[in-house]
Amino acid sequence: MKFKASEIAALIGGAVEGDPEIVITKIAKIEDGESQAISFLANPKYEPFIYNTQSSVVIVKTDFRPEHPLSCTLIKVDDPYTAIAVLLDMYNKMNKPRTGISSLAFISGSAKTGNDVFIGEFAFVGENAVIENEVKIYPQAYIGDNVKIGEGTIIYPGVVIYHDCEIGKHCTVHAGVVLGADGFGFAPQDDNNYMKIAQIGNVVIEDNVEIGANTTIDRATMGSTIIRKGVKLDNLIQIGHNVEIGENTVVAAQAGFAGSTHLGRNCMIGGQAGFAGHIVIADDVKIGAQAGVPNNIPKQGSIMLGAPAIDIRQFRRSVAVFNHLDKLAQRVSELEKKLAEATNQPEGK
After folding, report:
1. Can you say whether residue 93 is alpha, beta or left, with left for phi > 0 and alpha for psi between -120 and 50 degrees?
2. Which of 49, 48, 45, 208 is nearest to 37 (CA)?
3. Lowest CB count within 10 Å: 77, 89, 109, 257, which one?
């Protein structure tokens, strides 16, 4: 990587304040900056670092006005976070792409592979699997029978994709993910045992989805468990059978979705949130961390907190009362004492 500040500004749609000819060869955090590095300032709490950073260039918001002299060149943009994401993606793509099929990989004779595919050591590709162009399958991944993987998708080490599952284009599936394990379906019997219900569906992942490490997505009992396009899933998420996650929804780590939950578009789900089965969540809903969602949320744009989850305004009022429970208890005790004295009755009667 070797670019002038002016070239980077053109790439991310920014304006240079300082030396447009200064050369950048690396990307660094603002607090760990060094000569010829570019950093970014998006969060105001990191502003103190810009006044002594060693980075040569810092990407800042258009309205940034320094309170002290700066030694670095600035590139001003509307959204520094998006700008640095563009640069990081460019930097990542500059690394030499891996292609070729290892002699230590196993690929079924009936599987189909496209052009510029990479399949690493000890990866397994089953019968009638379809691997499209520029797919990368890293070592020790398991691709089951009849699986389809779309163009440009990356499957990292240790991923397990059960039979009949489908993954779209330009997805990223991180290490340890399991797609298509059986849904949790059992029929209670009179003798208190449980009869397993065969899970004959699959998992469908649409385009541009990212799935974090050790996340599990169960296959449908019938039909498909569906992750719509643009969804971003963090690490350690559990998604049950026949769940549908709406497009461009983001879910933080350790959230869990019971079977047949339907989540709308553009939702934001906090870490460790839990969803009961067979409920429907509207579009643009935000669920706070550790919330428990037992019922439908029909109102678009709702913000829900707590367990059970309630509207944010009601939650704030409840927290305000909870924070004063000790004082309320003391007042009740004092009133009981005064009442007892006035009526000559023992306290608490």
Report:
1. alpha
2. 49
3. 109
**Sign of torsion over alpha carbons 48, 51, 54, 56:** positive
DSSP, res 96: P
Q: Give the span between the Cα atoms of 315 and 309, in whole angstroms.
A: 8
Read off the pLDDT of residues 26-78 as tens digits, 9 standing for 90 and up.
Answer: 999 999 999 999 999 999 999 999 999 999 999 999 999 999 999 999 999 99
Give the span between the Cα atoms of 201 and 224, in whole angstroms.
5
Do 31 and 47 meet the contact criterion of CB atoms below 8 Å apart? no
Euclidean distance between CA atoms 221 and 121, whole angstroms: 33
pLDDT tens digits for range 271-328: 999 999 999 999 999 999 999 999 999 999 999 999 999 999 999 999 888 888 888 8
Among all residues, which ones are annotated catalytic? 241
